[in-house]
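Why do we care about 3D structure at all? Because function follows from shape, and shape follows, mostly, from sequence. That is the central idea of this module. The next example makes it concrete: a single protein chain, its amino acid sequence, and then its structure expressed as tokens.
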Amino acid sequence: MLSILIPTYNYNVTLLVKQLHSQAMALLIDFEIIIIEDGSNKFLAENVAISNLENVKYTVLQKNIGRSAIRNLLADTAKFNSLLFIDCDAEVANDYFLKQYLPFCSEKCVAVGGTAYNENEKNPAFSLRLKYGRQREAVIQNFSTFNFLISKDLFQSIRFDETLKTYGYEDTLFGHQLTEIAANIYFINNKLIHNGLDENYIFLQKAENGLKNLIKLYNSGNYLYLKNYSKILNFFLKIKKYHLQKIISFFFKISKPLLIKNLTGKNPSLLLFDIYKLGVICQIK
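And the structure:
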């Protein structure tokens, strides 16, 4: 009935797996939980213990194959037709998480559960990640691979693009493919807590890497529709049309230290974060 798929990289997934396993056993359904370590070198000793649980399969890959390829491999390994993808840094928020997905297991559809953040987390080292997550990710209905259910035959008709080797926008591309085939997508209130928070400087670096990948994808000519999904890209293209990117890049270079000071402080501005990203994208050659 249900294959729960968890791509894992350098994260302790024992609590998450035990939570999911307990709920699945209580529901008296046919299920499996498949965890694949994608070239991890941390927490292997801790995670291997979950392989002793009934209906749990734990595999370690010696080489990292990437965010897209690992999800395709998990889907290929699954034996049931309903695939529930969950990121390894998630935490179950309630006792009825799996139960809320069951009505969608009989349909050829996609159900996106959503993302939540720990309300008690106030560490200023994560201030930007928390503010962005709470005010953007948790309230906007966009497709995300963090927590979603999809029928296997629907997944196999699309699959993740394994040519994407670098970080960023694989979610967007997969979501676009679902739209292209007019798949039934349900956004439901069935959130998981996102625990794997990046410190502010790391989150800024990941944002820069994602923007580089975004420009690379768009410039390839194969993903021109990305301008419809990214406000930053759309705005940048308008700036480029009027040859203003060099001017913005110049002022960004001057103001970057001040922007970083705000964005890594206790109360970062998401408006300044958008300006920061625009400056980054204007500097990309």
